[in-house]
Design goal:
12 helices; five-stranded mixed sheet; Rossmann fold; 2 domains; 313 residues; DNA Primase, Chain A; alpha+beta
Length: 313
């Protein structure tokens, strides 16, 4: 028994969660653009994400409540394995460092990057005929929505034709999602909250939450920007700051006439998991909940573009 306990502690200390992910079949890949010194983001397949933290000793799944140490990770990936099977699977991995290079950690420790808020302030505001405007127009977003978004300063022009979408906490930009013709990611060093459209959400009793900012804007376009509605986006997974922002808004509108929460996540398994969590948040706040699953395509931008195509043919 003592030997077993010793081996368990040695495996827990000697096997990195990152190594487990990289050696899985199919393998998980490090998302360098969205990783930092203390938070390594791995992806595999549509909507599959695992965050490795605590220098490889811990992990968590932003699409669910799953988290733990390296033993929990193996069972999360292979639920059929018992604890003895997990020990056998981990033994060959002891002492093997993750395959990724140290670029992410070295950059984070040696450089002093500008804060997200400063980088946001340095970018020009969204304007007609800019590269970001044209990119968003090509995604089907109408001029009225883009004018409104520019007016409340929730989108700015990024480099290389990209659009930057702000997450704000207490009116301070704390995170920026980046979307463009050839790039999907976010600025490093931020703390996710929610993308809001429009910016004056306090008096809006209907709360529509999507995954991507473009999907939230697409919902607004499909509804002609309902005046009673706060449209928001998580930017993908839900970390502590995102969950706190969702709950804060739900509790702020709880009890108001007509207040309700609509989850407009993607039409795929990950989107359904997010919607299930959204429903839990609504139940906690005592607010009616609706799951708005896109009737066609994968997301609400697909629905918007399909409507435009039908109108133009």
């Amino acid at each position: 028994m003592t030997h077993a306990r010793t081996e368990i502690e040695e495996l827990r200390a000697g096997v990195s969660c990152a190594t487990v992910l990289e050696r899985a079949s199919p393998a998980w890949r490090l998302d360098r653009a969205e990783s930092s010194r203390n938070c390594l983001k791995y992806r595999r397949g549509a909507g599959e994400i695992v965050i490795v933290n605590h220098n490889g000793a811990g992990w968590w799944d932003p699409t669910s409540d799953a988290k733990g140490d390296v033993f929990n990770l193996v069972q999360h990936l292979e639920p059929r394995l018992n604890f003895g099977d997990v020990r056998k699977a981990l033994r060959p991995l002891a002492g093997i460092p993750p395959a990724f290079t140290q670029d992410v950690r070295t950059t984070a420790s040696c450089a002093v990057p500008l804060s997200v808020a400063v980088r946001w302030a340095q970018r020009p505001r969204l304007r007609r005929h800019s590269h970001a405007w044209l990119y968003l127009s090509n995604r089907g977003l109408p001029e009225a929505v883009l004018v409104a978004a520019a007016g409340c300063d929730v989108i700015r022009d990024g480099p290389y034709g990209s659009a930057w979408f702000a997450h704000r906490t207490a009116n301070v930009v704390t995170h920026v999602d980046v979307r463009g013709p050839a790039y999907k990611g976010s600025l490093t060093g931020g703390a996710k909250s929610l993308f809001w459209f429009p910016s004056d959400t306090a008096l809006r009793n209907r709360f529509v939450l999507a995954e991507a900012a473009i999907d939230a804007l697409s919902c607004a376009a499909l509804e002609n920007m309902r005046e009673d509605t706060a449209y928001a986006a998580t930017g993908g997974g839900m970390g502590p700051g995102t969950i706190a922002a969702i709950r804060d808004h739900l509790f702020s509108i709880a009890g108001r006439p007509g207040a309700h929460f609509e989850s407009a996540t993607d039409a795929n398994p990950a989107g359904d998991r997010y919607a299930n969590r959204h429903e839990q948040f609504a139940q906690e706040a005592g607010i009616p909940f609706i799951r708005r699953r896109p009737p066609q395509g994968q997301d609400w931008n697909d629905v918007l573009k399909a409507r435009i195509l039908r109108r133009d043919t």
